[in-house]
Amino acid sequence: MNSYLLKRVMVLIPVLIGMTIIVFSIIHAIPGDPAETILGQKATEQSKQALREQLGLDQPWLQQYFNYMGDLLKGDFGTSIRTKTPIAKEIMPYLAATLELTVASMLFATVVGVNAGILSAWRQNSWFDYTAMIIALVGVSMPIFWLGLMEQLIFSLKLHWLPSIGRMDQRNPIESITNLYVLDSMIAGRWDQLWIVVKHLILPSIALGTIPMAIIARMTRSSMLEVMSSDYIRTAKAKGLSQFFVVYKHALKNALIPVLTVVGLQTGALLGGAVLTETIFAWPGVGRYIFEAISSRDYPVIQTGILVIAFIFVLINLLVDLLYAAVDPRINYK
Amino acid sequence: MKKWSSLALAVMLSTAFALSGCGGNNNAPTEGNASTPTNAAATEAPESTTAAETAQDTLILGRGGDSASLDPAIVTDGESLKIAHQVFDSLLEYKPGTSEVQASLADSWEVAPDGLSYTFKLHPGVKFHDGTDLDAEAVAFNFNRWSDPATEFKFEGDSFDYYDSMFGPEDSRVIKEVKAVDATTVQFTLNQPQAPFLQNIAMTSFGIASPTAIKEKKENFKNEPVGTGPFVFKEWKRNDFITLDKNASYWKEGLPKLNKVIVRSIPDNSARFNALQNGEIDLMEDLSPDDLSTLEGNSGLQKIERPPFNVSYLGFNFKKKPFDNVKVRQALNHAVNKQAIIDAFFSGQATAAVNPMPPSLWGFNEGIADYEYDLEKAKALLAEAGYPDGLPEPVTLYAMPVPRPYMPDGKKVAEAIQADWEKIGVKTVIESPEWATYLDDTKAGEKDDIYMLGWTGDNGDPDNFLYTLLDKDAIPSNNRTFYVNEELHTLLIGAQKETDQAKRSDLYKQAQEIIKADAPWIPLVHTTPLLAGKANLKGFVPGPTGTEYYSEVYFE
Fold it and tell me: Would you say residue A292 lies in a domain?
């Protein structure tokens, strides 16, 4: 297991280097004079020249890449052109906000998706099965943008149950320590605040989690159906074990492998959908950080942002692989 | 490992089971919430219930983007200047809602007859938010920081772009020296007269910062600004919100009226409007014209219009034939139906542009008539130019690939114009390359025949429109038509040196006549940006350049 872990981590190195090359090449393939685009029509020739020097655009391509890699290894992600602040310092609150939203969304997607899948399989061809699968079908094809605005319209504007935007109540702000507000409000012992933070999380996590939820539900259902028809389940049932025990203990464990794969892949995919969700719900996350960088041609931020996302994606895949081994002892990596 | 994970999974899934019950769908969270509906209603109270009982003293403003930096000297974007406007005062300021200059930190000023020296008397007893005194030395420190290329207070990545563009780059500075005569007198000596000097000094970019704070905070100053303004900077969570507290010892009597201002970034227009209707914010910028009818149907809300201070236009490329021919340019001017474009693409929230500057700006020539929409006249003019059957070659029209404040959808407008021109025998090919390429191409002037672009005014001076966009000196930076008219050049340069505003106004009116006759552009529209606020919000005066003081705002 340990040597597998080591091997698996070693493989990451060429993957990460490859990613830097791809990201670097794409950014530099964009046509136009970056200095002009960044500074806009109103900038003087002098400040454009200064920016070119600062970005190293006057140097040869390969030189620029090696400089970039050197800085990365030193932990220097560059300075944002728009905000003129070091990216390493700037990106942390964004990452925390995205992490909080992603975890909440995946919690929603997994909990609801897995259970809906199990119940559908357990009561195959029942009204619940049909309803759940129709919802799953609609859920997969639901545009996040539309879903988000509909949620706001119904749960905020019409019913006044939930806040429509942001991470907390601005009139009653929260002291941020870790930038994970759920954690912060618990550290401060402010349970009223925790409730407000959770309420702010609900709509965006449903918007972001609906597609993965639907996919997970369908995957769980088919995987469960397969397992439920196998011999050992019939044996378990014959032994007179309770239905609940059979389904949740014996069947689920074996049905989980493909579900785990889907959960992993979907968590990665969430990072893409996060841009839209973060925009609609004014969520100050990494998706919006990159999006704004793209619209203002903040090349260092775009580069770093994409690398960070790619890195998280790779990390999730690693985690899923390790979980396989934990869940299923037959998977042996010696 | 195996035991642990299956236990964890079992716990997680069984709780999930209990929570979700049979409702494996979107209802789960709303059910959870339904148990405490009163609590929810109290925290997100819609304006109708509680607003009347206690006077509200916090303003929450929702806007589309975040500030780039809070040091106004190093930024050029409006979102940054909006916040700086609350934290900093300049020597002079624009009268709310207009582009006229009035006293601010400087109570009075004297101009030497030769226009080469300005002496400002500072308001006595003004203090920065850090408790230090605003004196003549502090003013001189700020101006020296912006002009001295070797200053130690220009930090990594910073550039003082607005200083360079308003007062000339390093090799041709307008301001020669700024010196403190005594504690409250500061004297500017110029290298050459500059007519818009006072207009320029009033820009938010030249807000006076605390020298002590800059020296202490260094590069962190751009995140923790210290000025003399009505609001004190408190907290900034990027892409989320900025909190400003009341400056209790503000030097202007009785201001600010609010206790706190929170400015939130809410990028999506619809979501921002939802938040306003839901009472989560009190005021929003950039309302979609599509939401106008909903706004007008809601008695709890009010519509606020910002005066138009921009222009969008089509520019003819003089390097290309036959656009060097004035008859052709006039013909095409006659063949654009501006009103139809406004009705179709701007929901009426725009006015047809006649001149290259907005009517709200002083010096605007009211007497000029537009080339009216008249296809017969257009055909006749084309025939005079030697093209009785229309132009032989298709015209390449560059239409903007990105929405701009003055032009939300360039391609659609271009298509409408294409259809009109077709009727007079002018075939059009619309091209819309990616934005960076677009700017490069129009600047080079090799590929486009006609291009679409626009401009938002930086300060309240006509020079910032006419000279900046159409003088031969502006080729090719902002004048991408390559239009050269020596007579116009003489007028515009003359206006820059004249210090009497009435005389300048006359010069600019003449300049607009020349431009109209030469028709290097087809001015399209001036847009009216829309804001929306709670009905009980008072004292908000929308400013043409997009910055307002929140100090006069209060809730009834």
Answer: yes
